[in-house]
Design brief:
alpha/beta, Rossmann fold, 4-stranded antiparallel beta sheet, globular, binds adenosine-5'-triphosphate, EC 3.6.3.-, nucleotide-binding
Amino acid sequence: MAKQPLIELQDVSFQYEYTNVLNNISLEINEGDFLALLGPNGSGKSTMLKLILGLLKPSSGQVKLFGQDASKFNHREWIGYVSQKSNSFNSGFPATVREVVASGLVKKLGLFKRKSKNEEKLVVEALQSVGMEDFINRNIGELSGGQQQRVFIARALVAEPKLLILDEPTVGIDYENVQSFYNLMAHLNKRHDMTLMLVTHDVDIVSSKISHVACLNKTIHFHGFKDEYMNLSKDQLNEWYGYSVRKIHNHKEGEQC
Ligand SMILES: Nc1ncnc2c1ncn2[C@@H]1O[C@H](COP(=O)(O)OP(=O)(O)OP(=O)(O)O)[C@@H](O)[C@H]1O
């Protein structure tokens, strides 16, 4: 059966008041893809995610989610999002881990729906999936950056999204935890058929997990299978990015660029 595109950008351009950020972006992300979005600082990655999430409207072109125009899309609970700055709570923030994760259910259950037994079960399961169930009664502000990030992933997972979008999710997390974070993402992708799109600079670490790569620098220079990306030349990447970009090691000498 042909895979359904969950995200479609059709000739999308975007500018902030004075800054032209994205030009003529056309891209499809299909059900089951695990896509790494790469690009230098300021290349428009976060802006593109915001357009997909409907937080910004394109200046021209069309964004579709699950086949529907993004502005009319009414199944927000199908999409989980973890932003770049989610793991920076100060220690006085008055919410427990349970409350933070349960707030992720609002999209699914509605704001005024009575708390059900099921809610507690979903919260515990989401925390278990990120190995944070022992922290359920702790104040979110008392956790380390990496632990907070896991809680925010659990918050995104609790509504059981079909599509998970993450903006540089491992910033400030140590190497070991980055590894286990990507193992979790691979598990969600493979075992739970979750479609994943993430902005990352951890190309080496994530390379064994992802299926696709997109290279952005104001426009999409490349979108394809990971193996095709790995066969691109250093010169080609330099031309797009204007400076050396580290490329995935393909277990061969001299491949880095
Ligand atoms: N709210 C805003 N108003 C005006 N310009 C903005 C705004 N947000 C971002 N920009 C500009 O748009 C461009 C793209 O920014 P964006 O955050 O999308 O890039 P990015 O690829 O995510 O960068 P980074 O890797 O540094 O996070 C930058 O030149 C930035 O300065």
